[in-house]
Amino acid sequence: MKLRYAPASPFARKARIVARETGTIGRIEETIMMVSPVSPNVDLARENPLVKIPLLVMDDGETLYDSRVICEYLDTLHTGRKLFPSSARERFIALRRQALADGIMDASVLCRYEVAVRPEALRWSEWIAGQKKKVLGGLDAFEAEAQSWTDEFDIGRIGAACAVSYLDLRYADWNWRAGRPRLAAWYRAIADRPSMTATALA
Hints:
Strand content: 5-15%
Low-confidence stretches: none
Strand order of the largest sheet: 2-1-3-4
CATH class of the largest domain: Mainly Alpha
Oligomer: single chain
């Protein structure tokens, strides 16, 4: 299998962490593929019409996207503890956490594009503030439940780790840890996990 990813993508990192947590990384060739919202990658477009990463090319040549689909597929390829829980209640809680993490990452990446890609004269500060409010609201929701989290990963907690690490990379000045001691403590406890250190954003 081949996994297309960009080193700074929190969504790609989620798939890369899952590959390591499930032990499927040995079956995957990771390939860096850069993307831009204003200059689509022609090679990637042939494999994913949305021109987004991550993208997984399976052994038979079929492609999978986006990160949610790739992660769930990789979780079917091993016999260990599943990152997508089997019991209905635990599964949907984990999926809800993943959705919240994805929403935080979506809003964060959109802010990044607004600042780094859009010409300064066209930037919309109120829109950026609205996206930031979504991010902070999502983090507050994670803070409310993080006290019960352990260092055991599921897909929701993997998503949360990817979301806050992206904020460290791009928005250190937002200081997401302020007022969120439980979430910050949980992240400190899992930050040195092998799957985390091997996939650090850059």
